[in-house]
């Protein structure tokens, strides 16, 4: 069964941005590695955005240091795998998906890392009905996304690598160093075709992280994606993503006022950094990450409240509960930190009086 693409809640990157990818293919005359849909130059344009000679506008997918994306793309053009590391909300998954879409034409060869994974998810499994009836055979073999990527010469994605148990992580060592996947039950092996590579993501602030072995780390070139350096950059990221998500979920609401986004992002940045934006007041930081992704979620939640239970315009009282929910993860410790911030910072900002009242009501 296939879905109507217009009704898909979150289309894959290669479908959502198909027109941009086609436009880039038309004008791309740079050298392409084998099995790449676009040249490294065009992949960077796709990620960072720009205007093509034919007038096509390529929307930025990542707001940040262009050099980091160039390093990531150059890595994938070699035999080294790519590891994207950063705190939650630094667009690791977003960048990974769009890199795969631009390079391979598909972002769906994905392994989602979990604490309960076994190595079959990395290698292959079996159709047990056929296995019992016929014994081990090629027909009974069920390929993993990584195995498919090796055979097709495409990019495979491994999300949340440090959530995966260490012994399962090490399954990747042979895949990345030898570029082959043994199938001892059949006395065979799968050798990777040109174009195959792996993009992995890892959260360096997650509790219960499984550290990567030094042997596995050596197989990756690591690119650290930082949080946005300045307020304006983070506000721009939040606004862009909020507008996109609002359209995809058909919220009957006006665009989120930039001032409300700026206030929310300021709160998150100050609590994250442990000081106010002007650097004059030191603050205690709560246990949560207060990432850009969480800011986007708070705005979207506020817009839903405004759309369905308000006048359609996002206001302070629509954001209040979402802000508190994002900040207060540990009921005692975070609550005290939050109340101190409200009284010493928010209350003192005269133009934030409406936000102070809304937060006080909660």
What does this structure look like?
It is a single chain. By secondary structure, the chain is of the alpha/beta class. It folds into two domains: 5-224, Rossmann fold; 231-361. It is built from 16 helices and eleven strands. It has helices at 13-16, 18-27, 40-48, 66-76, 92-104, 128-134, 145-152, 166-169, 171-177, 214-217, 231-248, 258-273, 292-309, 316-327, 333-346, 353-361, and strands spanning 50-51, 57-58, 81-86, 110-112, 124-126, 141-143, 155-159, 180-183, 188-191, 197-203, 220-224. The strands form four sheets. Strands 4-7-10-3-11 form a five-stranded parallel sheet. A two-stranded antiparallel sheet has the order 1-2. Strands 5-6 form a two-stranded antiparallel sheet. Helix 3 (40-48) packs antiparallel against helix 4. The longest helix has 18 residues, at 231-248.
String of helices and strands:
HHHEEHEHEEHEHEHHEEEHEHHHHHH
Domain count: the total is 2
> Radius of gyration over alpha carbons?
23 Å
Count of distinct strands: 11
- Annotated CATH topology of the largest domain: Rossmann fold
| Name given to the CATH architecture of the largest domain | 3-Layer(aba) Sandwich
Concise overview:
This protein is α/β, with parallel strands linked by helices. It is 45% helix and 12% strand. A five-stranded parallel β-sheet has the order 4-7-10-3-11. It has a two-stranded antiparallel ribbon with strand order 1-2.
């Amino acid at each position: 069964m296939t879905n109507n693409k217009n009704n898909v809640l979150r289309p894959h990157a290669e479908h959502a941005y198909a027109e941009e990818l086609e436009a880039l293919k038309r004008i791309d005359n740079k050298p392409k590695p084998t099995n790449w849909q676009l040249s490294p130059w065009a992949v960077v344009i796709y990620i960072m955005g720009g205007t093509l000679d034919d007038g096509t506008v390529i929307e930025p997918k990542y707001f940040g240091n262009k050099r980091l994306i160039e390093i990531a793309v150059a890595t994938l053009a070699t035999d080294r795998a790519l590891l994207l590391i950063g705190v939650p909300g630094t667009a690791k998954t977003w960048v990974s998906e769009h890199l795969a879409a631009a390079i391979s034409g598909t972002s769906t060869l994905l392994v989602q890392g979990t604490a309960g994974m076994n190595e079959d998810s990395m290698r292959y499994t079996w159709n047990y009905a056929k296995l019992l009836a016929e014994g081990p055979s090629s027909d009974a073999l069920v390929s993993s996304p990584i195995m498919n990527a090796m055979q097709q010469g495409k990019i495979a994605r491994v999300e949340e690598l440090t959530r995966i148990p260490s012994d399962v992580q090490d399954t990747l060592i042979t895949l990345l160093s030898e570029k082959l996947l043994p199938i001892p039950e059949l006395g065979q092996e799968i050798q990777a075709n040109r174009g195959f590579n792996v993009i992995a993501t890892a959260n360096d602030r997650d509790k219960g992280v499984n550290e990567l072995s030094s042997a596995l780390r050596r197989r990756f070139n690591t690119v650290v994606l930082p949080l946005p350096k300045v307020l304006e950059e983070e506000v721009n990221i939040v606004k862009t993503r909020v507008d996109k998500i609002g359209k995809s979920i058909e919220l009957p609401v006006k665009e989120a006022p930039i001032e409300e986004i700026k206030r929310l992002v300021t709160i998150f940045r100050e609590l994250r950094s442990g000081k106010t934006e002007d650097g004059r007041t030191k603050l205690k930081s709560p246990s949560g990450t207060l990432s850009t992704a969480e800011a986007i979620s708070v705005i979207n939640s506020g817009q839903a409240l405004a759309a369905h239970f308000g006048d359609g315009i996002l206001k302070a009282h629509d954001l209040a509960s979402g802000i508190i929910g994002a900040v207060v993860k540990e009921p005692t410790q975070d609550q005290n930190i939050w109340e101190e911030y409200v009284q010493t910072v928010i209350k003192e900002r005269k133009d934030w009086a409406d936000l102070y009242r809304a937060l006080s009501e909660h």
